[in-house]
Amino acid sequence: MRGGGILRGSSRDPDAAEALALLGAAGATLATAESLTGGRLAGAVTAVPGASLSYLGGFVTYATDLKESLLGVPRELVERYGVVSAECARAMAEGCRQATGATYALATTGVAGPDSQEGKPVGTVYVGITGPDGTSALTMELVGDRRRIQDRACREALSALCGILRGEQPPLR
Predict the structure, then answer these.
(1) Residue at 6 is within a domain
(2) Which end of the chain, N or C, is less surrounded by CB atoms within 10 Å?
(3) What CATH number is attached to the domain comprising 50?
(4) What string of DSSP letters covers 46-93?
(5) Could you give the number of structural domains in the chain?
């Protein structure tokens, strides 16, 4: 059962709060699929009082096998583009949306460090966003330590969602 759960004394991310307000106003829901951010995105969203009115839940699929089995990311896509790719971010978001029935889904993948992965440097981040009008991916090169990269990826994902919900970003394609 959704609804109700107000959290008292929790920290609030302004982007998460705005995203939830916009989702609520639109009667829309959100789900998340995370690799790079390891649950931080879901944590930012659920720290907002009343998040359960719009947030359905999410997946933390750090392992490639889980991206494939839980989110339906095709093995061929992983073999061709890797898990650190815009293609994987889009597929993760689409699989998350399909699995949860959410109106929108956000997905994060990339390299938080300390080492490069798949030939991509630390700070390479991809955010997949999907909704009723299609799917897109953001590509970012972030600077900082592991925590800063993860936190910034969360903020950028939520900010992009807000832009779409406000009609300021180009529609998803």
Answers:
(1) no
(2) N
(3) 3.90.950.20
(4) HTSTTGGGTEEEEEE--SHHHHHHHH---HHHHHHH-SSSHHHHHHHH
(5) 1
